[in-house]
Amino acid sequence: MSSQDIPEENLPAEQDATVAVADEKHPFADPGLPPHEHRIQDIDERAAKRSERTVALLFTASMLATVGFIASFVTIPHDKSIFVFPIGHLNALNFALGLTLGGALFCIGAGAVHWARTLMSDVEVADERHPIEASPEVKAKVMADFKQGAKESALGRRKLIRNTMFGALALFPLSGVVLLRDLGPLPGTKLRHTLWSKGKLLVNMNTNEPLRPSDVAVGSLTFAKPEGLEEHDHEFQTEIAKAALMIVRLQPADIKDKRELEWSHEGIVAYSKICTHVGCPISLYEQQTHHALCPCHQSTFDLADGARVIFGPAGHALPQLRIGVNDEGYLEALGDFEEPVGPAFWERG
């Protein structure tokens, strides 16, 4: 059925189209708008109902796809793989998440496009440009146009579309909420604690042997790790990033900070190797000045004065580990660091 088959009185009212005529002042005439052709939905309520059902079906499909996304995230193992022709072997979870999330987005978009193209008004309206600052008349016209557009969208009358659209838009954000689970478990107090504890031996990173005071010469720089932490451990990188130690032996008389002297053993001091700027490993030591330098951004710490920052962007001193010697003569920790190691974080007290 076309608009030519519909009696004139059943057709929507036409808008006037003014066509300008070229003259000397305006040599280019405004051709005006072409005659408006009515859609089948404009003149046949049964066709409009079919479009309404189609839009509602797309919105409903989006809701089902969102539910499928959440179900896939919860039920499919992250290491399961499937074969998809002609792509090949794929991770089943990634494939399901991409398929359902893409389907949910596509159905919302397709439903909105189909709604706009078949049920909303498609009459072209030409309007003159106006100054940026709207006059009261323009504001009134905008509000009138908005109300007219809302009326023509049939959102109030097409309840099936409205309800399914609200359902699709309400469910879809749940996909993002569920994805937050992939950020991992809450850190709790992990950032505040390391593997160091009372009685843990200081193990040389190079020789993998426990350290004795005699192994640390004055002016030398030694790197250590906690006893029991091995490179083949699954959590090695995570733990060493917090527990790595920098051990230096100073003359006790050169130590300026009282607490540093109390926490040392015969001039041997143990500081975190992790720079307090962005977490780079400190590896440079100047024995004459007792300064430790971070090679990343040149933050400099005075190891003879509580490892305070004397240059660079680091925000606070390196944490010191209290050490002693056990009955067998090996250097051991007397507890954990009393403050978090590495860069500052927002929960830091």
Spatial order of the strands forming the largest sheet:
3-4-5-6-11
> Which structural class do you get from the secondary structure elements?
alpha+beta
CA distance, first residue to last residue: 74 Å
The number of domains: 2
Q: Nearest-angstrom radius of gyration?
A: 36 Å
Number of strands: 13
Biggest sheet overview? 5 strands, antiparallel
Topology order in helix (H) and strand (E) letters: HHEEHHHHEEHEHEEEEEEEE
With helices defined by DSSP (H or I, 4 residues minimum), what is the helix count? 8
Indicate the percent of residues in helices. Answer: 25-40%
**Mean pLDDT metric:** 86
Low-confidence stretches: none
Strand content range: 5-15%
Coarse shape: elongated
Features:
single chain; 349 residues; alpha+beta; Rieske Iron-sulfur Protein; 2 domains; 5-stranded antiparallel beta sheet; 8 helices; 13 strands; elongated
Structural notes for this entry:
The structure is a single chain. With 349 residues, the chain is α+β, with helices and mostly antiparallel strands. It has two domains: 3-183, no CATH class; 190-333, Rieske [2Fe-2S] iron-sulphur domain (Rieske Iron-sulfur Protein, 3-layer Sandwich), CATH 2.102.10.10. 32% of the residues lie in helices and 14% in strands. The chain contains eight helices and 13 strands. The strands form four sheets. Strands 3-4-5-6-11 form a five-stranded antiparallel beta sheet. A four-stranded antiparallel beta sheet has the order 7-8-9-10, with no helix packed on it. Strands 1-2 form a two-stranded antiparallel sheet. The termini are far apart. The mean pLDDT is 86. Belongs to the Rieske iron-sulfur protein family. The chain crosses the membrane at residues 55-76, 96-116, 160-180.
